[in-house]
Amino acid sequence: MKFDIIGDIHGCYEELLELIALLGYEESQGIYRHPEGRQMSFVGDAMDRGPYSLEVLRLLFRMQDAELLNYSPGNHCNKLYRFFKGNPVHVNNGLETTLEEWRALPKTEQRHFRARYIEFYSRLPLYQKLSLDLVVAHAGIREDMLGRPPSNGIASFVLYGDTNGKFHADGRPVRRDWAKSYNGFPWIVYGHTPTEEPYLINRTANIDTGCVFGGALTAYRFPEKTLVSVPSRQPYQPDRFHRFT
Ligand SMILES: [Mn+2]
């Protein structure tokens, strides 16, 4: 099986459709299939901050209904799930934009969307083991975590990354670069931390090129290990991009 792994979308529906077309997928009744049988995979964080979070999610729901979805959640997916379940969450960091779209729906559609999202999320794996040599996880994963039973430690790593509980003065978490010391066999494709260019090191690929911050939406083709991207239509916010050193 060959895969096209797509980075953090964050509501950038127009760029997503453009990228899917550029990758050669064809649409029929809202479902996207590749003539050569390739499959899409997503690193998560489909929603929040960008303009069309609900449309992105509806596309993912249809793919899930057609049993063609390879998707594992990011921290934004997890927070929306907790909100819809009625748990107390801070409505910030882009969740407010998704909720604004959702609250604009008629009440019955709101209820239906919430129930569909809860079902969507509960069916997702923590990370995707797509083949012997390919794993997709939102913020990455360490090799020693692969194959271990799910735990809070693994869930936290996969959703939020390799953080040490410390924060910069502006409130951003201090991010540790697990990929720099990764020496495992499977390729790990992930997102979560926006960078100006895909960050490729060892057998890892961070493909969050900050589409919602005016960068690009990027796909990593596997096993070819080539990159395909489309430019963002959002305003460029240079201070939102991380620099791995
Ligand atoms: Mn994220």
From TrEMBL:
<dbReference type="InterPro" id="IPR041780">
    <property type="entry name" value="MPP_PrpE-like"/>
</dbReference>
<dbReference type="InterPro" id="IPR029052">
    <property type="entry name" value="Metallo-depent_PP-like"/>
</dbReference>
<dbReference type="InterPro" id="IPR050126">
    <property type="entry name" value="Ap4A_hydrolase"/>
</dbReference>
<dbReference type="InterPro" id="IPR004843">
    <property type="entry name" value="Calcineurin-like_PHP"/>
</dbReference>
<dbReference type="InterPro" id="IPR006186">
    <property type="entry name" value="Ser/Thr-sp_prot-phosphatase"/>
</dbReference>
<protein>
    <submittedName>
        <fullName>Metallophosphoesterase</fullName>
    </submittedName>
</protein>
<feature type="domain" description="Calcineurin-like phosphoesterase">
    <location>
        <begin position="1"/>
        <end position="194"/>
    </location>
</feature>
<dbReference type="Pfam" id="PF00149">
    <property type="entry name" value="Metallophos"/>
</dbReference>
